[in-house]
Amino acid sequence: MKLKTAILASIMASALLAGCQGSSIDDLSPRAEKQLPQKIVAKMKAKGMTTTSPIMVRIFKEEGALEVWKRKDNGRYDMIASYGICKWSGKLGPKYIEGDRQAPEGFYTVRPAQMNPKSSYYLSFNIGFPNAYDRVNGRTGQHLMVHGACSSSGCYSMTDEQVAEIYAFARDAFRGGQTAFQVQAFPFRMTAANMARYRNDPNYPFWKMLKEGYDLFEITKVPPKVDVCEKRYVFNNTAIGPEGIAPNAACPAVGEPDPLRMSYMSYQKTFETAFSAAQKKSSKQAPAPSIAGLTEAQLVSAWSAARARGEKVSREPPSLTPASTEKPNALDIDPVMTAKTATPTSFQPVAPTMQAAPQPATAPAPQEVSTALPAAPAATPVPQPNPALQAANDAVPSGGDPASANPEPVMAQPVEPAPEKKAWWKVLGR
């Protein structure tokens, strides 16, 4: 009886520790041996890759994208596949403590032992949180995964079909001799425009540190060598040997700049010019037109035109229907957020919100309301893009939907129509 109790307790403890990892009592499932689609194999061959060449993974929270990069015959990496993240939890920013439901950000290493072919989340691999940087800075957590099942509690969750392909990329690379692959997890694509948008965020110093590794990969298309010293990330430091260095030790000085360092400095000059232009552009946004007196059809038309111009607008057409003022119960709020809805609490959208026009002090005499729709308002002039900013951003490959890189500004609710006027939707019988 005591033996049965001990076995049961052991099973329950294992279940509690599983977290995102999950497990299965089944033998190795054929799903872990699923081969890549032929169209991907053909694409790899066209790019000068083999099925067993090394890989690297990049993750972007705000864009909701996971990219798989593979090494080509010339030693540089090229993106071979991009997947929309099904769910990730938390908000933009790093993971701090176990239980905060934050998906990690940083540079992580995945080895064969971190692959889980028996995951109850279809397939999964542990990204390696906490790494040396996380541990030396007191950050805690475990079992942070990329897995299937589209359900997240601090992990990056994909669909089963997506994770099967990602798993196959890693499996084949390990079988080809790669001993570990790098996972780079970022809050967003670190362009000059995005960095300017988040320059006042409390996480900005941390993101600026990550950006050095991001930039080095953009320049070389080779995963940077990552070390931790002085409790911070350092990249391609040739004075640090393969055995590494204590994460809290002083960073060794780097000698004369090598060609890569010179390229990086040149890249940074271009970035600073574009960053400065982005700051000025954000402060010169044209005011939004008033929505007073517009029909819903006209609002949708204006929304569509703004989207076509590339302006930062909501992904859904606006509506004149007033939103409920009732506040949600805290217990009813879903703590799991998707990448397309998560935005940092400190961020203020740079695009102006739609403002309702003030009501006149004295209401005009009631008049007969026509059912004819008024003409669409003239389009608001849009600031022209800065050439320096455009040049810098064009140099950065964007593997996702450009529109998805922008957070959704919140549209102000319109003022109720004056009592003397008959609402247009009532005139139309709505």
From TrEMBL:
Record-linked InterPro entries: LD_TPept_cat_dom (IPR005490), Transpep_catalytic_dom (IPR038063)
Pathway note: Cell wall biogenesis; peptidoglycan biosynthesis
A molecular function (GO) term: carboxypeptidase activity
PANTHER family in the cross-refs: L,D-TRANSPEPTIDASE YAFK-RELATED, LD-TRANSPEPTIDASE
Residue ranges, annotated region (Disordered): 308-330, 377-430
Protein name: L,D-TPase catalytic domain-containing protein
GO biological process: cell wall organization; peptidoglycan biosynthetic process; regulation of cell shape
Domain L,D-TPase catalytic span(s) in chain numbering: 55-186
Listed PROSITE patterns: LD_TPASE (PS52029), PROKAR_LIPOPROTEIN (PS51257)
Active site: H147 (proton donor/acceptor), C155 (nucleophile)
Sequence similarity: Belongs to the YkuD family.
UniProt KW keywords: Cell shape, Cell wall biogenesis/degradation, Peptidoglycan synthesis, Signal, Transferase
Source organism of the structure: Phyllobacterium salinisoli
Signal peptide start-end: 1-18
Pfam families: YkuD (PF03734)
